[in-house]
Write a structure and sequence with these properties.
Order of helices and strands: EHEHEHEEHEHEEEHEHEHH
Radius of gyration: 20 Å
Distance between the termini: 62 Å
Shape: globular
Strand order of the largest sheet: 3-2-1-4-6-7-11
Number of domains: 1
CATH class: Alpha Beta
Length: about 280
């Protein structure tokens, strides 16, 4: 067991992309980090620069038993957990119709169930120590469903629904939960994308989407996301939700306004669908 006054982070998907940026930012701030990933070898150079302050744990977050074991190892090493970042994720791209059962389940296994298992595993420790902060890395894809990322959106919608309930359940124990919705960052999420077998009926839509992405994609350095998460971790009153990036910020408001406009347009139908009646016999 190793103890000191610095905070302890538990970061999944820590070896690359945003996860690596979060790990390096926390270490630069003088904190200690448990970096978990399927392959932790890319973190060897980081561990060498911060001896004794980075514990790397090979972990497949879809394996619930392995997740609980990893949390036990983390606590045995650093005695506590302060900030848990559920960052591990994968992108399965394809039209909803194209997904096989195995592909659909694999998408949910990583993005939703992985975060669920981590949250379940850390809660007893956070509850016992009287506090902590769980940061759920969601996505712009949770603002709405978009063509070719429907199952990815589904996994992030599920993550956010679970996390809102988790926040309400854990608040009484001093545990805070924040949902972070990033936009585009220069990570290997896109280059490591798993694609479905294309249905030629969607070729025209795919071509249009590729044109939109080429003309309108905005991607930033991961360190900017890490700076935002550090600000979140340093806050005494972190928000339940945080948008990362101007494009995501503007889109969130646009989507919300359009939904409110639609609800208002159909208000009469909505209200007519409710009328209190006695319980049936």
């Amino acid at each position: 067991m190793e103890t000191s006054g610095s905070r302890v982070w538990f970061v999944t998907g820590a070896s690359r992309g945003l996860g690596r940026a979060f790990t390096e930012a926390a270490l630069a701030a003088g904190d200690r980090v448990v970096g978990a990933a399927r392959d932790v070898s890319p973190l060897d150079d980081v561990a060498a620069r911060h001896p004794g302050r980075l514990l790397t744990l090979p972990l497949d977050v879809t394996d619930r038993s392995a997740v609980f074991d990893a949390v036990e190892q983390a606590v045995a090493r650093f005695d506590r957990l302060d900030i848990v970042v559920n960052n591990a994720g994968a992108l399965f791209a394809g039209m909803v119709e194209e997904f096989t059962e195995a592909e659909a389940r694999a998408q949910l296994d990583v993005n939703f169930f992985g975060a669920l298992w981590i949250s379940q595993a850390v809660l007893p420790r956070l509850r016992a120590q009287g506090g902590g902060h769980i940061v759920q890395i969601s996505s712009i894809a949770a603002l709405g469903g978009f063509p070719s990322t429907g199952l990815y959106s589904a996994s992030k919608f599920a993550l956010e629904g679970m996390s809102e309930a988790l926040a309400a359940e854990a608040a009484g124990f001093g545990v805070k939960v924040t949902i972070v919705q990033p936009g585009g960052y220069w990570t290997d999420l896109y280059t490591s994308t798993t694609a479905t077998t294309p249905n030629p009926d969607y070729d025209e839509l795919r071509a249009e989407l590729e044109k939109q992405w080429a003309e309108g994609s905005i991607d930033s350095e991961p360190r900017l996301a890490a700076e935002a998460v550090m600000a979140l971790a340093n806050s005494d009153n972190p928000p339940p939700r945080l948008l990362l990036g101007s494009m995501v910020y503007d889109l969130a408001f646009d989507v919300s306004r359009r939904r409110m406009d639609t609800w208002a347009e159909w208000e009469d139908v909505s209200r007519a669908a409710e009328k209190a009646v006695p319980a049936p016999n």
